[in-house]
Amino acid sequence: MPTNKYADVGGVIIGRGYPIVVQSMTSSPTQNIEQTVNEIIELADAGSEIVRITVNNIKAAIAVPIIKDKLISRGYKIPLVGCFHYNGHQLLKQISDCAKSLDKYRINPGNVGFGNNRDKNLEQIIEIASYYKKPIRIGVNWGSLDKTVLDSLMKKNAETGYKKSDQEVLREAIITSALSNASYAEKIGLPSHMIIISAKVSRVPDLISIYRELYFRSNYALHVGLTEAGLGNKGIVSTTAALSILLKDGIGNTIRASLTQSPGEPRSNEVQLCLDILQSLGLRNSRPSITACPGCGRTNSDYFRKLAQTVEDMITEKMSIWRQKYPKVVDLRIAVMGCIVNGPGESKHADIGISLPGDGEYPLAPVFINGKKCYTLRGDNIAGEFCKILDNYVENNFSNIIN
């Protein structure tokens, strides 16, 4: 059950016992205000509930409150997270409007400062976060891990006869860095529920091992994701594998898919991947689901695939309206099947489904609603007729369901 302690990130709640939050990050230079605003809106429209932006210099810091105002003027109140490396303590102190406008600060213990300045710089950031009541994310990355922590654990391992592999020591160094910095932030005065931890690596087995340890060794909210998932199918598969295992075990309160974009590919694809993972695991629905068979020698593959795509396009087109008018439409289950083998059965299991005629079958397409056969479609306009039936079903069955 949720407790009374949670991180409030601009009205979005992050904490154990609360719905998993999807977030993303812009790729445009933050000082390019219009470009950044447009990218944030694209990500928000795709379903990102929090957007992180780079704040790496004075120009970017000055741009933050302007970006916030422009978003609000266009009807977007999406929380913004400032991503700081090396000079976050300076920027937050010098540009107070930036510190106030951001809804969360993201810092990396590996580069918040070095030597004698490290604790001093971290302390400045924590004090500013406490003053403005802003949560922070302590984000440890194995590509920029605090060398002093790693060297200390490597030395200790050597003194005990190398009982652990270098990889095991590296994982422990990441966990130690995250937890020790979170503890230090608490000592400075930031409440534990306002601290979110991430400990990102690129290999799936390492990520799973690290987050399981963090979950059992602390009560902090956890942001989960690979630090660089990769390009194309590799990135999608790696992200899905890692997140699915952890989320199904109840580990993770907010997630991101750090996919490498192909030229011209929208950044919003990473948001959709996160939403699809959550929906596939039965953790949270974001849009109606469509069951469609893969096709085989029994099916007229071109026909049922076109219908499945038509229904998908219809949902995409109508979701902005449906989401406002029919909030529970995200739970709608649709089936578009290609022949008599599994078609009627899958259609009965769905809220609304259609079983198209396969090769050699009589050219009729039965439509099932709530498990009962209600229509039989035939002719050249099956797609149009089914979409009309689907639209009417949504209006008739979801208009009175608010929560």
TrEMBL record:
It catalyses: (2E)-4-hydroxy-3-methylbut-2-enyl diphosphate + oxidized [flavodoxin] + H2O + 2 H(+) = 2-C-methyl-D-erythritol 2,4-cyclic diphosphate + reduced [flavodoxin]. GO terms for molecular function: 4 iron, 4 sulfur cluster binding; 4-hydroxy-3-methylbut-2-en-1-yl diphosphate synthase activity (ferredoxin); 4-hydroxy-3-methylbut-2-enyl-diphosphate synthase activity (flavodoxin); iron ion binding. Its EC number is 1.17.7.3. [4Fe-4S] cluster binds at residues 293, 296, 339, 346. Residues 8-274 form the IspG TIM-barrel domain. GO terms for biological process: isopentenyl diphosphate biosynthetic process, methylerythritol 4-phosphate pathway; terpenoid biosynthetic process. Keywords: 4Fe-4S, Iron, Iron-sulfur, Isoprene biosynthesis, Metal-binding, Oxidoreductase. It is an enzyme of class 1 (oxidoreductase). Its cofactor is [4Fe-4S] cluster. Residues 290-391 form the IspG C-terminal domain. InterPro entries: Dihydropteroate_synth-like_sf, IspG_bac, IspG_bac-typ, IspG_C, IspG_TIM, NO2/SO3_Rdtase_4Fe4S_sf. Pathway: Isoprenoid biosynthesis; isopentenyl diphosphate biosynthesis via DXP pathway; isopentenyl diphosphate from 1-deoxy-D-xylulose 5-phosphate: step 5/6. Binds 1 [4Fe-4S] cluster. Pfam families: GcpE, GcpE_C. NCBIfam families: ispG_gcpE, PRK00366.1. Converts 2C-methyl-D-erythritol 2,4-cyclodiphosphate (ME-2,4cPP) into 1-hydroxy-2-methyl-2-(E)-butenyl 4-diphosphate. Belongs to the IspG family. This is 4-hydroxy-3-methylbut-2-en-1-yl diphosphate synthase (flavodoxin). It comes from Lyticum sinuosum.
